[in-house]
Write a structure and sequence with these properties.
There is one protein chain. The protein is α/β, with parallel strands linked by helices. The protein has three helices and five strands, in the order βββαβαβα. The strands form two sheets. The protein has a three-stranded parallel sheet with strand order 4-3-5, sandwiched between helices. It has a two-stranded antiparallel sheet with strand order 1-2. β1 and β2 form a beta hairpin. α2 packs parallel to α3. The termini are far apart.
Length: 91
């Protein structure tokens, strides 16, 4: 898909084969991120904190994780360390 913006053309990639885990506790920020990614057709799953993110990653494969840093229950830095640690143990 191409979008014309005044003097230039923006090519929007088709990412429909990919999935992203969006880890964000603020519903408005979730909505903004989803709207930014909407035209790419990427599959988006949301998690409201790091604990939920770890649970979702344990059940489903994601191609990318977009992680907020400050969240309740488990912050993004701790969740990222846990994800990296679990990935090292599966190699």
């Amino acid at each position: 898909m191409a979008v014309m913006e005044s003097d230039y053309q923006v090519d929007i990639p088709n990412l429909s084969e990919y999935s992203v885990l969006l880890v964000e506790d603020n519903p408005i920020n979730q909505q903004v991120a989803q709207e930014f990614l909407q035209d790419t057709n990427i599959q988006i799953t949301c998690a409201e904190n790091g604990l939920i993110a770890l649970d979702r990653i344990g059940k489903q494969k994601f191609d990318i994780v977009l992680m907020d840093i400050q969240m309740p229950e488990m912050d993004g830095l701790t969740a990222t360390r846990e994800i990296r640690h679990s990935l090292k143990n599966t190699e």
